[in-house]
Amino acid sequence: MEQNEAPHPTAELKEERGLEWWQWNHPTSGVLQIELTGKGVHDRSTVAARAGQFMTDEDYVILARSDVDVYLPRTTSALELLMGAEDNPEDRLLASFRKGVFPREECNAYRDALRGAAGISRNRGNAAGVLDLEELKRRFGDRLIVESPTRASYYTKDGLRSMTTISNGVHSGIAGYFNATPRNPYCRKTAWTRDFPAEFEKASEFVRHVDREFKRLIPGRWAAQRRFIEEHSIEEHGWAVAGTAFTTMTVNRNYRTGLHLDDGDLSAGFGNMTVMEGDGPGYDGAFTVFPQYRVAVDIRMGDFAALNVHEWHGNTAIGPRDAADPDSWERISLVCYCRELLAKCGSQEEEEAKRLAWEGSLQDNPKVKHARNLEERAAAAAALGVTPEAIHLAIREGRLDRVALSRRKPVTIRGVEYVSHTQ
User: Which helix (H) or strand (E) holds 25?
Assistant: First the structure.
């Protein structure tokens, strides 16, 4: 729906490369306000089909480098508003950007504490970009199984199919708290938070500064997140940064994200981002782009951006300003948010009891399952008169069902049918 009614008496209609928007300055703060009309905006499904791809300069028209609030098109007309319909601008906010909120000295003081959280991760999916098959094949060889453009699985050296999927390796980590998952069915501190408590406490000081800016700039969204934390006793149970609207932080280092949606964030909340840079010549690029709306934000040292991370977004290329010294730059981005599923967590003591019970479980623990599968295959190989490697290969090639072994059903190896007598 295109919106052609001026949102403010001083608003001017702008158009570039087919994208149309209204812009005016806020009457009190003077901050630039931009409201898209809907004309020139891309279809969401078309953008979603590009998941994992990197953004380029062709993917945006508007590039924010100074204070600005960007709003999505209105869906209500002036007549509908007169008849009682409501239009809350915060509900349509795409990005609220402020330059130089956090002084360089302050950022430098917390940068070292956060850097260690951005370890190598192979679990970022679309955000890690389209699979680098050459690198993955060097690592896994013919054991690699490509499942999607951004996700793969693999067979372990024992011949078992991995129970997890992988993506490209990137410098990205999670700080704070995380909800239960199939792989770890209990709520927990992230590994970095657990192993480096002093660094986490230091980083939490800075997170409180980010929280204050979030509350000041977008009070409605902040209140929704804080209310969610309080109503579900998330902070009381020990799963929030005390006094803030945040439970979790993603820390990225020198990392260009592919097109993605942030998964697991509170739907009524917002992602809050700032950047810390190294002391060298620096870098160019790394714009955060929302390609559906053709809007980008250049978030640099000490800037603050509140972003609707439920919209598709990714980064443009990053490159050192000093081409002769490719290691002369550093970009650490910090994204603070609230994990929705932490509402289902008990206290830290209750979740620790779940972890201990799970680790001792023969049924659910993947490490126990892995060891049991190896024992099962060794016994089956002995009963069938073949090597364990033959069992592994037959399963990998789809000629043998692992479940058939455990259920003593007939199996065929090398053209001969056998019956396993494993227990």
Answer: strand 19-25
